[in-house]
């Protein structure tokens, strides 16, 4: 069995540069510890991918269409289906002073941002700096060791993993209720205070409307507890009984005739948005030839 375009799967992988074996990205904690990538604050777990939707490098995306659950394989990706060939036109020599007040602290190999572009310092001398705006993995042959862990089948799992794709959620930080054509997502206070949450929620609704059939409405509830409730609450699951403020935001799928949505709570803010037709693609693994942008790999 192979995966159709748009199939949601969980994928474990470790990505290496072929010629030197350097690991540049992984979802596996043990592999991260064997490289210089390990981050103790990160939760290492399989990554959600929509097959054939450009969420990963083109070479990896193409290979995943012919895999199956439980299959482990090694995929070699050429530069044209990875981060592209190196372009000499993307190498610039500039006056060192253009790097600002800390120009004298810049070293070869440093990553700098200049004119809304990210590059790597390749040379410093005679008051000039050479900056390479190619992706650091341009022209490199890559090898992905992958394991297809699971195909996401149920609507409940799709909603959960699409939400976790964009928000740093443990199970106790979000509660999801799915009834017929409606989804209610309850977020804990720490998630509610994240920067850019409104943009993230808009992207989440776009994803869910795309991948879950039959939905007409998604409501986010942000729950805030009084200090007394926090001190006395035995577990995060009991927080809904002692809230001081609940903020609701509702997103509805497009319909022929718009209708109003009313939710009654102690304090309520209703906001209606229209979902887009396609999800935002992850950029950490996208090919530079496809995205035309410089993205830092995770």
Q: Can you walk me through this structure?
A:
The chain contains seven helices and 14 strands. It has helices at 29-33, 58-64, 155-166, 189-192, 197-211, 227-232, 288-291; strands spanning 8-17, 23-26, 47-50, 72-77, 91-95, 111-114, 117-125, 128-132, 142-151, 174-179, 182-187, 217-225, 243-252, 272-274. Strands 1, 2, 3, 4 and 9 form a five-stranded antiparallel β-sheet that branches. It has a five-stranded mixed β-sheet with strand order 10-11-12-13-14. It has a four-stranded antiparallel β-sheet with strand order 5-8-7-6, with no helix packed on it. It has 298 residues and is an alpha+beta fold. The model is unreliable at 236-244 and 258-298 (pLDDT under 50). Strand 1 (8-17) and strand 2 (23-26) form a beta hairpin. 18% of the residues lie in helices and 31% in strands. Helix 3 runs antiparallel to helix 5. The protein is globular and about 65 Å long. The chain has three domains: 1-87 and 138-153, Roll (Chitinase A, domain 3); 89-133, Beta Barrel (Thrombin, subunit H); 154-279, Alpha-Beta Plaits (2-Layer Sandwich), CATH 3.30.70.2210. The two termini are 30 Å apart.
Provide a brief overview of the structure.
The chain is an alpha+beta fold. It has helices spanning 29-33, 58-64, 155-166, 189-192, 197-211, 227-232, 288-291, and strands spanning 8-17, 23-26, 47-50, 72-77, 91-95, 111-114, 117-125, 128-132, 142-151, 174-179, 182-187, 217-225, 243-252, 272-274.
